[in-house]
Each structure stands twice: as C-alpha cells, then as structure tokens.
Amino acid sequence: MVQKAKILLVDDRPENLLALEAILSALDQTLVRASSGEEALKALLTDDFAVILLDVQMPGMDGFETAAHIKRRERTRDIPIIFLTAINHGPHHTFRGYAAGAVDYISKPFDPWVLRAKVSVFVELYMKNCQLREQASLLRLQLEGGRPSADEARESAGLLAELSARLAAVEEQAEALSKQLDETADAAAVATAAHLERKLTGLRRALDALEPGSGSVAG
Q1: What radius of gyration, in Å, describes the C-alpha atoms of the chain?
Q2: Helix 187-208, helix 150-184: angle, nearest 10
Q3: Phi, psi values for residue 6, rounded to 5°
Q4: What are the residues whose beta carbons fall under 8 Å from the beta carbon of 109, sequence distance 6 or more?
Q5: Domains in the chain: boundaries
Q6: Domain 6-142 sits in CATH 3.40.50.2300
Q7: pLDDT, tens digit, 9 for 90 and up, residues 1-58
C-alpha cells in the first residue's frame, strides 16, 4: 500500500480550513489542520509534510513569522510553503512572501482548480522523492552487507540504473519547465522551479554516491 502524503493547512478561520479540505479532498491525501502558527509548528515537530498551505493574516504569529520559524529548522526548511492571503498590497507584499521562503503566493478568492493543481505537483514530487530514497536506502544496505554475489551485483546495478533513469525523467521535466520560465518570467513559477532544482540536485548527488567506486559505501 502506498503511504499517503500529508498536507498541512494553516488558517485561524474554521470556514477557510473547511473550504481547503473540500478543494483538496480529491487528491486523496492526508489533510492536517492547524488553526495557528504555533499549532502548525507543533505538528511539524512529529510529522513530515509534502506541502504547507499557510494563511498570511493570523492573530498572534502571522504567516510570515511562522514561515521564518519553519525555514530555520533543519527538519522542515525544505518543505514547500504556499502562502494564501485575502489582501494584496502590491509587489512589495508578494516579494515579502517569497523572501520568507514561499514557493507560491496566492490571493483569495482563488481558483479551486488552480490551487488543487499546484498542490498536486508538490505531492507528486514528495512521493517520488520518498520512493527514490527508499529504493536508494535498500540498495545501500545491500551494498554494505559485504561483497555481493554476481547475481546480487547485477541486481544492484540494475536497480541503480532504474533509479537513475527515473530521476533523469524528472530532471528532463524540470529543465523543460525552466526553459518556459525564461519566456514567462512569472515570479511564483520561478520560485517553484528553483525549489524543484534544489531537490533534484540533492537526489542526484545521493544517487551518484551509491555508484560503485564512489567511496561512500563502507566495504
């Protein structure tokens, strides 16, 4: 059974949380509510999330401050944050969101289909990352188990090749996205692409470290 990804919904208004749940329920993932920045930070201490939908205007700790805390923690700093706001004070307000670490900044009222599509991208990326890491971990354990037999060596080489091919396909999609951004120069999309490139670079390095002769696996 494929484990579902967790999506953190942060808003101080129950009706907004209910609306987000209605929009995102079609993704069939685990939706976790938080009614404040403090509650969101508490949830992030124990669970891993694919993406965070964070309301900007909240009493006490607002969205910007909450995002700053999230980005300061090593465990959570790479989780993509989508800011949701009912106000629009122009470019300065939007850029403040990106400066706080958001990968996207959406003004209310938003198009439910657009929001669902954007969230699904990060869920898919998260699931692929989990699958790649799990397979890489299994391969590392296999390699660390001592000198493999000829059959085990062939199996390991085949798994490495499969992992590399899967990652290459995602890298190709990311490259195509970057080329499109050169033409549109949309700030939100640029931030999203930059986050994706960092994730892919980390995965590629981890995979390369498993290659025979890399020296990273103890014999």
Answers
A1: 20
A2: 160
A3: -105, 135
A4: none
A5: 6-142, 148-209
A6: yes
A7: 558 999 999 999 999 999 999 999 999 999 999 999 999 999 999 999 999 999 988 9
